[in-house]
Structures are given as structure tokens and as C-alpha cells.
UniProtKB/TrEMBL annotation:
Keywords: DNA condensation, DNA-binding. It comes from Paenibacillus abyssi. PROSITE patterns: HISTONE_LIKE. This is DNA-binding protein HU 1. One of its GO terms (biological process) is gene expression. It holds the Pfam family Bac_DNA_binding.
Amino acid sequence: MNKTDLINNISEKSGLTKRDVEAVLNGFLGEVTDALSNGDKVQLIGFGTFETRKRNGRVGRNPQTGKTIEIPESNVPAFKAGNKLKEAVK
């Protein structure tokens, strides 16, 4: 399912227009992005938690040349599924 499919499905089930659903979805995604950028986490009880995790620096290898390169540490987005979501997927 892509973003368009998601908007269409929510629109059909909720009775809202596709334009309204798209505005809400874009607002939600923007708020999650802003929160993660600021180092906060977004917790939706039963669904899951969006957070950032620190990835340690490491030594890698350039596959084209074989030279070793230093990969710096970074923060990466992560999602941890909640219990209700885990049960629904089983």
C-alpha cells in the first residue's frame, strides 16, 4: 500500500474528502518528522513508538575500490510496534 492507497482507503471508511485526509496525513507525518528531528519520540499507545536511535561509527569498505572508510556515528529513525499492532499482525 502506498500513500495514495492509504488516503483513498481512509477517505472511503471515514467519509472525509481525499483532500482533507491528505492534509491530516501530511500534518501527521510533518509532526512526527519534526519531533524526531528534535530528539523527541512519538508514542501512539497500542500502535507503536517512533524514535531515533544512535548508530555508532564504524569502519566500512568501499565495494568498488576495496578501500576502508570511516563511517561516522549518526542518528537514525526507528519504529517499535505496540502490542495491539503485534497481535493484529499475528
